Automatic annotation (TrEMBL):
NCBIfam families: ECF_ThiT_YuaJ. It comes from Latilactobacillus graminis DSM 20719. Keywords: Membrane, Transmembrane, Transmembrane helix. GO terms for cellular component: plasma membrane. This is Thiamine transporter family protein. One of its GO terms (molecular function) is thiamine transmembrane transporter activity. Signal peptide: none annotated. The chain crosses the membrane at residues 7-25, 60-81, 87-104, 116-143, 163-183. Pfam families: Thia_YuaJ.
Length: 200
């Protein structure tokens, strides 16, 4: 049991580092402030594989890494509360996608493909929406002064973070489904993958 817990922790740390590495890929859409977060994808996969709590811990590690390696250096931290919301909570809640772990893994084992695909899209929705909802709040409360003159801060934040959410959600859902088609055992721990029922 202790060995299994250690394995999950190591896997989570690796996923966090991988998610951080993906953030260095150019991810701004056009001239706008809309961004795609590639790091969400491996974290959602890990959360579906290991559960919500390990996923949230891995997300927290990713957020701290992003804060240290990018946030503090490029002026993205305005104060303690904004930093806490956007670099710890926002990254951590992506792991909530793992609340569907049991349902998804059962669906994969029983080869109910349509249900599995729906669950993957819902998981992608949870992971991306929770993250960008935090950024939306921070955008309106802390970054409102950067809104175009005469534009409501909440509407500006909704436009920017809503666009980022939608783009990241579509990409995440698509990649999750591609992963299912190519390597369905990706979402299953090793012991479950070995015992998967043959498809009829």
């Amino acid at each position: 049991m202790q060995h299994q817990r250690l394995l999950i922790q190591i896997e989570g740390a690796i996923i966090a580092a991988f998610a951080m590495a993906l953030e260095y890929i150019p991810h701004t859409v056009g001239p706008s402030a809309i961004e795609v977060s590639f790091g969400i994808i491996p974290l959602v996969i890990y959360s579906l594989r290991r559960g919500a709590f390990p996923g949230m811990v891995s997300g927290l590690i990713w957020g701290i890494l992003d804060l240290i390696l990018r946030g503090l250096g490029n002026g993205s931290v305005l104060n303690v509360w904004q930093g806490l919301l956007e670099f710890t909570i926002a990254f951590m809640v992506v792991g909530l996608a793992g609340i569907l772990q049991h349902h998804l893994q059962t669906s994969i084992q029983h080869h109910t493909r349509v249900k599995t695909i729906i669950l993957l899209w819902i998981a992608g929705l949870i992971g991306t929406f929770t993250k960008y909802f935090c950024h939306f709040l921070a955008g309106a409360v802390y970054w409102g002064s950067y809104a175009p003159k005469g534009m409501n801060a909440w509407l500006y934040s909704l436009a920017v973070n809503g666009g980022s959410f939608l783009t990241s959600f579509i990409l995440t859902g698509a990649v999750l489904c591609i992963g299912l088609a190519m390597v369905p055992k990706l979402y299953l721990p090793k012991d479950m993958a070995l015992n998967i029922q043959p498809e009829k």
